[in-house]
Structures are given as structure tokens and as C-alpha cells.
Amino acid sequence: MSLLSDLINLNLSESTDKIIAEYIWIGGSGMDLRSKARTLPGPVTDPSQLPNWNYDGSSTGQAPGEDSEVIIYPQAIFKDPFRRGNNILVMCDAYTPAGEAIPTNKRYAAAKIFSNPAVSAEVPWYGIEQEYTLLQKDIKWPLGWPVGGFPGPQGPYYCGAGADKAWGRDIVDAHYKACLYAGINISGINGEVMPGQWEFQVGPSVGISAGDEVWVARYILERITEIAGVVLSFDPKPIQGDWNGAGAHTNYSTKSMREEGGYEVIKKAIEKLGLKHREHIAAYGEGNERRLTGKHETADINTFKWGVANRGASIRVGRDTEKEGKGYFEDRRPASNMDPYVVTSMIAETTLL
User: Fold this and answer.
1) How many other CB atoms are there within 10 angstroms of residue 11's CB atom?
2) Per-residue pLDDT reduced to its tens digit, 197-232
């Protein structure tokens, strides 16, 4: 195995200029990440230097067998923490051979919204709090939980330390460092309220890059859990009963919100979000009704309310924002399995267009 490890860690730059590019895209379920690698003649610094590629869409639920070719366009580049050196991860989106975005390509519509002058002038910042659950591979039961049984009630696990309170920290730390290495703007990690559940935060990231960074961070986490023999779940309510669900709270601010008088701009934006509550809920993740019950730090799915420092609200405004009269707010409705391209662009569209 030591030879295998040596080969995996070979430094290619010692013998060749060639690099490996891992092309990543989103499959037909909207949550399944796919990837494949190709060799390039030398280092690359911009997506425009990369060739488009294709894949078999009939194998990902995105095209019929008789016309299965889907074309992927490179959109964002990150350093590859697995192969290292000059090797790269490439976030792509998917098109028909005629150049039309396929229905599951949510990035295309988001990029149009973010390139709108009224949106780009406001430099929208996002901070996304991605919660997830680590499951034991063969039984799909949370890491650290007794097989077929339950741990003690919630309370000691949130941001906890100790062998009886935190499970999977090696995976979480490996992911944190791998994301920093890749160039993802990951801003922190913490243990969550339900044991076996964790969170990482991406941001502040501007516009479309927030979606790119969250998707690549998810991909890196999938790869690390693969190595560790642990299953990664983005289910919004992995365990029924008196256990917290998993969300992807989305913090948001615009240039106007960050400047003097921004608190009034924030209140108007929240009002606009309230008027489109149903449309947002419909796009904020599958199975979210199991999570947004009005319990476990959520607002009921059918109710829109906001408040300062209120974790049981749909929208939470921080005490600092209220005090300083400017800042950001947090949309607490998105589920852990939301598409960050959809959620970020929808918030921008509702509040700015």
C-alpha cells in the first residue's frame, strides 16, 4: 500500500508540463455531482483556456439514449487538493450540442441575473452555511450513533468536543483545509446541534461565484467522505423526531445595505421576499416541509416572519446590523439540499429586480 500511496502522491511537475483537469458537473437529480478527468498540455489559469467537453447524458438522466451527448462548458477553476501541483478542478455547466442550456443547468439562468447591470452594480455578497450529516456506510445511520439506537438528547453536541460528543472531525478538518487549498472562500466550520451533523460556511462571495464555490466545496466533501468510507447526506431532515434538520442558511447583503442607511434598504428587501414567500419555498430544496415545522430553530413553512436575532424566523437580522443601521440579513429557509445557483440568484432577483 505504501507504493500505491507513493504513486498517488507523485509530483508530475518533476517530469512533465502536462496537468490533469477534473471536470465537474451536476447530474440529473440536481444533487448528484459527476466528474471525469483529462490531460492538458500545460498549466491553465483561466476557464477560457480550457476546451469544452462532453458526456453521456443518458447515464445521468439528462438525455435520451438515441441522442445522449451533453456538452460541458468550463466556468470556474480551483486548485486540486487531491492531485496537487498544477492540477485543477473545473466547475462546468451543461448544454445541448446546439448550445442551449439543458433544463438541469441552473447556473445559466443565475449568471444572466447576476450579469444584469442593476444586480452587478449592487455587488451582492453571499455567505452560505452548508449543513450536512455524516452516515455510517452500511446502515445509513448517523456517525457515532449506536446501530439501530439513539444517542443522548440534543444539547452537548453543538460546537462540542470529546469522543462522546463529536464524530467525524478528521473528515471535517480535512475538508476545511482542502477547500482553503483549492481557493474556495471557506470561512469556517462547526459541529451542529444533531450529533453526526456538521456545517461549513462559504463566503462572503460575490454573485455567481457563491454557487461555484459551494458546489466545488460539496464535491471535495464527497471525495473526502469516499476516502473515509462514510456516506454524505444533504437530506433536510435525515432523522425524524426530536432532532434538528439540516439547512443552508443564506446570508445576503448589497452595496446599499452595507452603506449608511442600509437598514431601511434591508427592511424593504425583506418585505419583497415576504411577498414571494411561496415561490422561494418551492425552489429552496426538496423535502424542506419535513424540516420547516416551526420547531428546532425554524419558522413554519407556510408562515413568513422576520426578526432581530430570532432563529425561529424565516429571515433573521443580526443585532450588529440593527445597532449599526447597516449590514446583512440571513434567509433561514433554504434546505441543505438547495441549489446555491437557484437560491442566490432568486434572492437577488426578488430584492433588486
Assistant:
1) 9
2) 999 999 999 999 999 999 999 999 999 999 999 999
Instruction: Please give the DSSP secondary-structure letter assigned to residue 335.
Output: B
Pair type for strands 53-56 and 69-79: antiparallel
Q: Enumerate the β-bridge partners of residue 23.
A: 36, 90
Q: How confident is the model at residue 148 (pLDDT cuts 50, 70, 90)?
A: confident
| Cβ burial, residue 37 (10 Å; 0-12/13-18/19+) | middle
pLDDT digit string, tens, across residues 82-96: 999 999 999 999 999
Handedness of CA 60, 64, 70, 76 (dihedral sign): negative
Between CA 270 and CA 314 the distance in angstroms is 10
Give me 224's grid cell: 473526502
Q: Which helix (H) or strand (E) holds 95?
A: strand 88-95
Q: What is the pLDDT of residues 234-282, one digit of tens each?
A: 999 999 999 999 999 999 999 999 999 999 999 999 999 999 999 999 9
**With contact defined as beta carbons under 8 Å apart, do 151 and 144 qualify?**
yes
Q: 95: which strand partners?
A: 71, 101
E strand or H helix at 128: strand 125-136
Cβ contact 93:109 at 8 Å: no
Average pLDDT score over the chain: 96
Q: What is the DSSP letter of 51?
A: P
* Cell numbers standing for residue 81: 487538493
Q: Find where cell 414571494 sits.
A: 276
Q: Strands 125-136 and 248-253: what pairing?
A: antiparallel
Q: Which three cell numbers stand for residue 173?
A: 478538518
Residues of the chain with pLDDT > 70, as a percent, come to 100
- What pairs with residue 93 in β-bridges? 73
Q: Rounded distance, CA 66 to CA 296, Å?
A: 48
